[in-house]
Design brief:
Structural class: alpha/beta
Shape: globular
Helix content: 25-40%
Strand content: 15-25%
Order of helices and strands: HHEHHEHEHEEEHEHEHEHEEEEEEEEEE
Largest sheet: 9 strands, antiparallel
Length: 525
């Protein structure tokens, strides 16, 4: 009996070591107590069971946001093993870079919250991760979105139950219709077989690392916005005859694509393969390339599109939202493929039209396109014109905008064409807005032709726009004269707080159109 007891004690200690984490939470203490209690119960049962083993598998527990740590493995059963009915997705590739710069994220009550946990609380259930080959190379983006960074972000998202999509750019930098550069390490290849082999090796290397971290991958995108092809130039953008342009080297494209697909299937046999093009509203701009791929034998499961509505188009709803929905259904019917919106975004996200554009794309894609597998917002966590990007989904306060409410399986409301809660603007007043479209202040004329108001800024740098009640927009006259104030142009379309003049705080501001200047002073407490 003593031998049995020591054997059970050894088991309990072994489990405790395997499962050990610092006891920082009540949950941690409970887990150890359960292990020890199990050992005692097993000892009590053993006399009737002889010397047979009575081991039971430890139960998986859903990790809590405060417990997520990149250094510990994710359980393979992380929510990514079955297909989602519909993916409400976030491409948060900038997240770790933003965090390294001290950027914070807040829920609607103002509580600082880890970004993936915050997005999940809204309803997001999928995360898209771009990966570059060696972004620290001379022509690369920098030390982000490489294999290690993608593994770390994937683990964090998977630990919260997100499905994971990996978006291979096959470049050291952005790959999109404006540039499809080879990675520097592939510049000296002389045959398409060498490129295909390198694509296979890179794909398998990244996915194997993700799998070894305990994360399953639901989708893999082979190339990013490859509407005109991929790997079209050398890494420095110089021309090369050895490229995968769709207009004259479709066979090369398909060889690289199918070879990379083989690598995907060797690591994740059930993973869905995506081909991704841009300008989802324009059938003639993308269908020719899709037709070439299908007829040429490219093997894939889902055709994905990007859509970024331009709200300066007077017919934006028809030309973007209606057109996208029609094109998704047309792709499905013509090519017998599932479809997906792999990227969506909109400027001035706090404005009603921007909210309506995002809202109706998500709701209608789910309701009206039977073969649509999901919609992904591109960099929803971005705010404050991070990296000069104006189409993030968060407000300048670091809180999510209302537009993201549509990324929830229980949400199905289409929005009316006009804002039912819009307040009428007063023609004589000047309205200040963040770049995301939030109202910062309403300034009133003082009788001397000067608008005055009070504004609170929460960061040391803030771009803002000024529009009067008649819809006239004002900005600086040039970037060297920060306190100038004139009618906006296509080049100069905003003003800003920042530099050594203004820090976060509350200011009394004034705008003098006759003198062409503006300024402010710290408001009295």
């Amino acid at each position: 009996m003593r031998r049995i007891f020591l054997f059970l004690l050894e088991i309990s200690v072994t489990f405790a070591v395997i499962d050990y984490q610092p006891f920082n939470t009540l949950q941690d203490m409970k887990r150890l107590n359960i292990i020890m209690l199990a050992a005692v119960l097993l000892m009590a049962l053993l006399p009737s069971c002889g010397d047979s083993d009575g081991k039971s598998e430890p139960q998986n527990q859903e990790p809590q946001p405060e417990d997520i740590n990149d250094s510990k493995p994710v359980e393979p059963n992380n929510g990514n093993t079955t297909e989602l009915p519909f993916a409400y997705g976030a491409d948060a590739g900038w997240l770790t870079e933003m965090e390294s710069k001290g950027i914070k994220f807040y829920d609607n009550s103002g509580k600082e919250t880890e970004c993936f946990a915050l997005l999940k609380s809204i309803g997001f259930n999928a995360a898209r991760m771009r990966v570059w080959v060696q972004p620290t190379n001379k022509n690369g983006y920098g030390p982000w979105c490489d294999k290690a960074d993608v593994v770390a972000k994937s683990k964090r998202a998977a630990a919260l139950g997100y499905k994971i999509m990996i978006d291979f750019h096959y470049s050291d930098n952005w790959a999109d219709p404006g540039q499809q550069r080879k990675p520097e390490a592939w510049d000296n290849f002389t045959t398409i077989d060498e490129i295909a082999t390198a694509a296979y090796d890179h794909t398998k290397d990244v996915l194997t690392a993700i799998k070894e971290a305990g994360v399953d991958v639901a989708w893999v995108q082979i190339g990013n916005e490859t509407t005109g092809g991929m790997l079209k130039t050398q890494s420095d953008k110089s021309a090369t005859d050895l490229n995968c342009a769709l207009d004259n080297h479709t066979d090369y494209y398909i060889k690289v694509h199918n070879t990379a697909r083989k690598a995907v299937k060797e690591v994740f046999p059930d993973c869905k393969i995506i081909v991704h093009f841009d300008r989802g509203q324009l059938w003639d701009k993308f269908s020719w390339g899709l037709d070439k791929l299908v007829k040429g034998g490219a093997e894939f499961d889902i055709f994905g599109l990007s859509i970024y509505p331009d709200l300066t188009d007077a017919n934006w709803y028809k030309n973007y939202v209606d057109a996208l929905i029609a094109n998704l259904n047309k792709v499905a019917a013509t090519y017998d493929k599932d479809v997906m919106v792999c990227e969506v975004g909109c400027a001035n996200i706090a404005s009603y039209n921007s909210r309506r554009a995002i809202n109706d794309i998500v709701v209608r894609a789910k309701k009206e396109v039977s073969r649509c597998k999901g919609v992904f917002y591109w960099e929803p966590e971005c705010y404050g014109s991070w990296n000069q990007y104006p189409m993030g989904g968060f407000l300048s306060s670091g809180k999510p905008s209302e537009a993201l409410n549509a990324f929830n399986e229980n949400y199905s409301e289409l929005l009316p064409a006009t804002d039912p809660n819009a307040a009428a603007l007063k023609e004589e007043n000047l309205y200040l807005y963040t770049k995301e479209g939030e109202l910062l202040a309403e300034c009133t004329p003082d009788g001397d032709g000067v608008w005055r108001g009070t504004i609170t800024i929460t960061t040391d740098y803030l771009n803002f726009t000024a529009i009067d009640g008649k819809g006239v927009k004002y900005a600086v006259k040039d970037w060297d004269t920060w306190n100038s104030f004139v009618k906006a142009t296509a080049t100069y379309d905003h003003l800003w707080f920042g530099g050594n003049i203004y820090k976060a705080g509350t200011y009394d501001v004034w705008f003098d159109l006759a003198k062409g200047t503006w300024g402010g002073a710290k408001a009295a407490k």
